[in-house]
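Q: Got a minute? One more chain.
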Amino acid sequence: MGLRGETVVWSDLMYPGLDGRVVVEARFHLEQYVGEIERALAEHDGTGTPPEPVEQARAVVAVRRAKGA
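A: Always. Here it is, folded:
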């Protein structure tokens, strides 16, 4: 997994796509990725409150946007 700008990139994957071809890379917008992690973790612990690492990741997104990265 890596980060290119505001895109999270998962590479070296090997699973079948909807069209039957092998998927080797998946890309997610950073804000969407962090949001899904936040949702899953909040659902898992039952509090509905995002954990501190998610808040830190949201701060990174805000700083990158402010810098125009």
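A: The radius of gyration is 15 Å.
Q: Perfect, thanks.
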